[in-house]
Amino acid sequence: MDELNFDLASKLVEPSYIHQARDAHRTRLGRVRRLLSQRRLPERGWDDADVRWMMGQLAAMDSNQFPEQVGVGEREGRVYSSVVRERHWGMAHGMGRAGDVNADQPKAAGASLLVRLAQYLVRDAIRRSGFESCRAVGLLPVATGMALTLCLLALRRQRPGCRRVLWLRVDQKSCLKCVTAADCEPVVVESRLQGDQVVIDREALQRAWDALPAVSDENGTRDTRGVLCVISTTSCFAPRAPDDVVRIAQWCRAHDVPHVINNAYGLQARRCCGRICAASRAGRVDVVVQSFDKNFMVPVGGAVLAARHSDMVQRVLQLYPGRASVAPVADLFITLLQMGADGYAQLLREREHWNGHFRRQVAQVAQRYGERLLHTDDNPISFAMTLQHITESCAVEPAHIGSMLYARRCSGSRAILATERRCIEGIEFVGYGAHVAHYPCAYLSMACAIGITQRDVEVFCERLDAVLRQVVAVQRVSGWNGPLNETGDHVSDADEHG
Ligand SMILES: *Cc1c(COP(=O)(O)O)cnc(C)c1O
């Protein structure tokens, strides 16, 4: 309704009622105006009705929704199923153009506006998380691993002839596969133990560099050693600590080597973002990659590139062939509108709060079984407890403890044996899962991630206690050291399920 239509309406319905409705409408328009002009998270999150209305407005700006539109092209935003149309608010043209996934789409003014606004909202959220100097963001409808691959492909155009990636070991398959998928050669920078923590220092990076044969660049002026970039990681499973990205960034600047940071779920931790901010100032950081879903509580499907300078982000977006789905960006846009600045701040605060509580609770359970929390204080999200005595004295594999937890509907914890040899993408890893060869004991890692609730923490700790109690009881009662099945149900006593 515009002003004229409201005037006409007041000739049909009691004008004071229409006046009220017009007032409410103006409030809503005011919200949209602030969003368009300030381009920041709203102080307070929007309610469902506002969001639905806004999405309707945006979708109506796309050509497939225009009244009296006819289309004779091969891609006209036709959607067969009304269920599918509803799921996408009627937006059917995706984002970007053939040559640039970041370009405005002529057939979709609404979706294009949605993407722009989402970029600003995400940038605001990233700054509020602690990466205050973030200026450029790029939204990709692919998850973190694929986004990293796209970054490497963009770098390969910048550094022709360079295929080697100095890869700071992190035992998560997608972290390695993103390198091989870009047809690059991972050069593993090995980690070491520092107390309970697994760390990788700049000296290890230097050693990996020194071990490579000299390769001069295409002008013959500089020795690149064939290195495309360094990939460091700031969010990872304990006992690995986040990389010291400040010193790595300084090293990269000194050696003229691009630096990609995998910050998959680090936006939720002030410490990760603060370090990235400092690294971007003190050294070289080309691009930082993070997941939509792990940071912002949306379904899997997108990743955000962030950087202090826009060059690299632009290059990655320009590399993307063709258009892309706008659905993951729409999910993020809606979520950020509904969270608002206060909702986001509260989620970050709550996570911090439960983080301490969760660690203390697990430490208590651990103590009951002669185990302890590993000292992994540099990791702000993930932590771990030992499974040393339990696995040794009860002759149970850590994987069984993992399966028992899983069978009790606990997901997300990882039981690691730490002596496993695995070949991943043609590279042999000793102690796969532990991020280091020869980690001294088996352990169970957990994460205190955004959105976690008191119930998650408490119920998990109860079930963990029950599982460990059962493992110990089996050993004690039967004296039999054979393997347990997944649920441990073949043993009748000491089970809370009877
Ligand atoms: C989750 C994660 C990935 C892979 O992310 P996808 O979104 O599944 O591609 C890579 N690296 C780290 C550190 C992660 O946590």
From TrEMBL:
Binding site for pyridoxal 5'-phosphate: R75
Chemical reaction(s) catalysed: O-phospho-L-seryl-tRNA(Sec) + selenophosphate + H2O = L-selenocysteinyl-tRNA(Sec) + 2 phosphate
Pathway named in the protein's UniProt entry: Aminoacyl-tRNA biosynthesis; selenocysteinyl-tRNA(Sec) biosynthesis; selenocysteinyl-tRNA(Sec) from L-seryl-tRNA(Sec) (archaeal/eukaryal route): step 2/2
Site (May act as a substrate filter by repelling compounds with a negatively charged alpha-carboxylate): E74
Protein keywords: Cytoplasm, Protein biosynthesis, Pyridoxal phosphate, RNA-binding, Selenium, Transferase, tRNA-binding
Residues bearing the modification N6-(pyridoxal phosphate)lysine: K294
Amino acids binding substrate: R97, Q105, R323
Swiss-Prot/TrEMBL GO biological process terms: conversion of seryl-tRNAsec to selenocys-tRNAsec; selenocysteine incorporation
Binding site for tRNA: R281, R408
Top-level taxon of the source organism: Eukaryota
Cellular component aspect of the GO annotation: cytoplasm
Nuclease found in the keyword field: no
Record keyword Endoplasmic reticulum present: no
Coiled coil: none
EC number: 2.9.1.2
Cofactor(s) needed for function: pyridoxal 5'-phosphate
Top-tier EC class: transferase
Molecular-function GO terms, alphabetical: O-phosphoseryl-tRNA(Sec) selenium transferase activity; tRNA binding
Location in the cell: Cytoplasm
Broad class of the protein's primary localization: cytoplasm
A Pfam family recorded for this sequence: SepSecS
Task performed by this protein: Converts O-phosphoseryl-tRNA(Sec) to selenocysteinyl-tRNA(Sec) required for selenoprotein biosynthesis.
Family: Belongs to the SepSecS family.
Name of the protein in question: O-phosphoseryl-tRNA(Sec) selenium transferase
